[in-house]
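quick one before i forget lol
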Amino acid sequence: MKSAEKARLTCGNCGGALDIDPEKPTAVCSFCGSCYSVSELLNETEQLKLERIRRDVELGRQNLELARIRQAEAVRNDSALKEEVAKKSFLGRVAIILAVISLAMCVYCFFVIAAPLSGCIAGVQCVLFVVSFFIGQQVIPTRSKRLHILPFTLAALLAVPLSLSIAMNEELQPTNDAEVLSWNEIVLSDRIPELYSDEGYLMKNTRDDLMVSVYDIPIKEYYGFVDGCKDMGYTVDSIEDVESYTAFAADGFRLSVRYSVRRDGTVEIHLFAPKDGE
């Protein structure tokens, strides 16, 4: 190395610039006069360089490992997010379909089978499904990511009371065994006024027991029938409300009449002859 090719270090005593000529055995600080061995200074400098390189390599390796970990975590988070979105999307579609079905069931219960209780249950069920959909789509903001499952579950559970209420309502509906009803065929027809309908169901028809359902009777005609029964003497121990009338005749016959608007204006008549000894 030529004399012009000098290394510049810092004096360890005063901090001033220290020029080193590799061809000379010593180097003297021009500021404080401190003397240094050139071979020791150069060797120390190479060691520092190697140490710095090792630190840079280690730092680079650590940064690379950290970047790999962050990338893997980002991939996992992205997969979890996509899975959560897919679940919410699927549950949202199911909620909308069930909400439409519940709405249709609500209309059916109110306007077709005249079952207001079932209609109310179906209406609440529809609202809960819609709320579940809106929460899942963040239309209704919530702190919990899974809160949309709660109204969905409640709506699904309402299917049980809805089914039971519809079944109970069907039991109250007129039987499908309706037949052409001829009042002259009723054995005890002379004991009660005539209801003018040719559709009904005759369950019992003897001199001792009459049980008949007469369909499609307007409410005014039902009240007229009850008044006619009173005129025929069924006034003893009478019990009367809006849709029923029960009373005895003086000769012991017992009459029970019930009217049902929910059953398409059905009048149920049960007439019992007095038993022997009564």
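fyi The helical segments are 38-111, 116-136, 149-157, 159-172, 219-231.
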